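Need residues for this backbone.
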């Protein structure tokens, strides 16, 4: 382990890194990293961001950025499934510069700080919990022992400083630095802008770390500032917004304030939110719909009441049905999210969930339990009858079985997943089917183009009367899409300014804007 100072130089340069993960679901811009970037920029630090989520990850890209920018501090974020690659990136950065201070944050390392530092000597500091104030202390030169909310080493021994107090005044945080991200790439994926209206969750579901990360007490932002941020996000070309709090609809008065502010400003945009079916009522849903809400995601988890009780969901199947019906009556679509493999799961309870999901008459999906560090279900796995089959963090993507109960193992869970994916029947009105299919195709095409750096790899292309068709032809030689599909997608992106070209003589160089 290299001996170097953990106190960066005054006016240090900070490189922020967004690590990659597989596109099993649509990637989103990380809120935590964008808010950290915002506070650093607000304080006048020289920062750059390397986004490896919406481009092809390679060590050469990292080396080039390190060489060009020469940062004093590197900060990376991760969840459990991409912790291995985040750690690998920091290890490579350390091989390039023995003196750079390497910092990692996010929920995974927050609850596995000791293990992280003991097994990854190339990582200097773990940020535990909320990172905005902690990172300012680190880059500001405060001695590590006096920085709350971190873990670091002293003579090879891991030291955890005292817990950092939660940020009471969320309104004091500057706007997240979305402009540092490659926005055109995200727009090609039809990604929504994510933001929070508050932090904290009073519930303590045993498979979630939300209340541990953000506290059990809800802290709310001023509705006017929330809508300021919404307008800020829309000005960057985002068409939709998702409110990603742990529980947006808990405080109705606060939600009314947001809806009223949106309406008062005459903003017209679609938005969605995470919610619980037992925290809504017809009046709240009506006001949300009038303000542009089109979707709510309900965490249903299981169609078996016993399992809901075991995981401390503190709701009932009947209340969930009522919440779904109220939303549908208000004209808001619902996505009901289920988790299979929870404590007490058997082949019978799996079929109960499948039946219950179909009876809700709405969109639904199944994920698989991943016992993340920090969750009660991981800390008390034996008590809950859960056998954890692997600690390969890359497999903790909630899309594959990595646990078993006495009544259901990987084979049974996989069978339910296959049944779901093969016989997926969503209640899509016929008139919308073609539009939705085209949007999904564009998103899949965009993901393939971005992950493979296909556009960049084409180099210069001969100019022609119809450059879009020419580019489409080159792409269809590489990716399994029809010329019509690619041409339509490229035409849309060019029309929206997402994709453009520079002319070099009689050649064109295409690029994301």
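Answer:
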């Amino acid at each position: 382990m290299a001996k170097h100072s953990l106190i960066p130089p005054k006016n240090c340069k900070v490189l922020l890194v967004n690590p990659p993960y597989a596109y099993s679901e649509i990637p989103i811009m990380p809120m935590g990293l964008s808010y950290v970037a915002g506070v650093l920029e607000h304080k006048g630090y020289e920062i750059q961001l390397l986004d490896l989520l919406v481009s092809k990850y390679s060590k050469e890209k990292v080396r080039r950025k390190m060489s060009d920018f020469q940062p004093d501090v590197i900060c990376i974020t991760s969840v459990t499934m991409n912790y291995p690659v985040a750690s690998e990136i920091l290890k490579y950065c350390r091989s390039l510069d023995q003196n750079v201070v390497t910092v990692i944050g996010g929920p995974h390392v927050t609850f596995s700080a000791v293990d992280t530092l003991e097994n990854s000597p190339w990582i200097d500091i773990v940020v535990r919990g909320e990172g905005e104030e902690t990172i300012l202390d680190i880059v500001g030169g405060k001695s590590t022992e006096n920085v709350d909310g971190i873990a670091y080493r002293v003579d090879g021994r891991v030291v955890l400083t005292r817990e950092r107090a939660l940020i009471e005044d969320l309104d004091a945080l500057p706007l997240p630095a979305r402009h540092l991200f490659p926005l055109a790439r995200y727009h090609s994926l039809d990604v929504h802008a994510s933001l929070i209206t508050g932090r904290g969750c009073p519930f303590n579901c045993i498979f979630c770390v939300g209340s541990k990360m953000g506290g059990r007490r809800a802290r709310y932002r001023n509705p006017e500032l929330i809508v300021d941020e919404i307008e800020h996000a829309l000005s960057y070309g985002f068409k939709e917004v998702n409110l990603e709090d742990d529980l947006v609809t808990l405080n109705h008065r606060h939600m009314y304030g947001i809806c009223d502010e949106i309406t008062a400003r005459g903003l017209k945009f679609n938005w969605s939110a995470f919610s619980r079916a037992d925290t809504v009522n017809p009046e709240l849903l009506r006001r949300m719909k009038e303000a542009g809400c089109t979707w709510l995601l309900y965490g249903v988890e299981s169609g078996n009441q016993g399992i809901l009780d075991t995981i401390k969901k503190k709701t009932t199947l009947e209340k969930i049905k009522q919440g779904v019906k109220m939303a549908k009556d208000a004209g808001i679509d619902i996505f009901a999210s289920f988790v299979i493999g929870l404590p007490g799961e058997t082949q019978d309870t799996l079929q109960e969930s499948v039946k219950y999901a179909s009876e809700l008459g709405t969109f639904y999906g199944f994920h698989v339990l991943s016992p993340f560090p920090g969750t009660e279900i991981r800390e008390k796995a034996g008590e809950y009858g859960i056998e954890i089959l692997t600690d390969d963090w890359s497999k903790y993507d909630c899309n594959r079985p990595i646990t078993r109960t006495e009544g259901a193992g990987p084979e049974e869970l996989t069978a339910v997943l296959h049944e779901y994916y093969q016989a997926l029947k969503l209640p899509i009105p016929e008139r919308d089917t073609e539009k939705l299919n085209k949007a999904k195709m564009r998103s899949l095409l965009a993901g393939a183009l971005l992950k493979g750096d296909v556009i960049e790899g084409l180099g210069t292309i001969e100019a022609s009367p119809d450059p879009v068709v020419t580019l489409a032809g080159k792409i269809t030689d590489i990716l399994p899409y029809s010329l019509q599909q690619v041409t339509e997608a490229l035409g849309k992106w060019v029309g929206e300014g997402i994709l453009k070209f520079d002319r070099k003589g009689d050649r064109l160089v295409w690029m994301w804007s």
